Fold this protein.
Amino acid sequence: MNALFLDRDGVINQRIVGGYVTRLEDFRLIDGVLEAMALFARHFQRVFMVTNQQGIGKGLMSEGDLATIHAWFAKQVEDAGGRLDKIYYCPALKSEHSFMRKPSIGMALRARRDFDDVVLHQSVMVGDTRSDMLFGRRAGMTTVLVGDEHEVALNAPHLVDYYFNDLISFAKFIDGHGKEFHA
């Protein structure tokens, strides 16, 4: 499989409902994420994180604060045997309608530009929101929704190719059935 695109909040770390992860102390990994990242490294040529971070645009955190969080996470992934080829983020406010902000596909196109071996229609987008599924669908990727059953209904089933309760469930499926999974 080509590239894996992962949303952050709600997929990698616990989402703060009605708020933002603005410091490392608030960045709490979801159980199984590091194990999942190690499995993904074996099955995908490239692994990316794509995340909207309008907390920067709102002045709640700096790009340096975000860099600290992402550097810590990348180190944890590496120490667990995983890989993150690059982290893409958009600090713009939703109201700015930035092409880099999901569900627009700017981050996917930037990854394709930065890594000439990325083939979007052979790639997978994993997220927990309708915006993530739209991003994946608009970029021509296979979409994987992680979360509870309520999220599936909210995200419109026609946007979701696969559904798993969490990231580690998807990783174990890929590890055991990789040849049967078609991106």
User: Anything to note?
Assistant: The chain has a mean pLDDT of 93. The first strand starts at residue 3 and ends at 6.
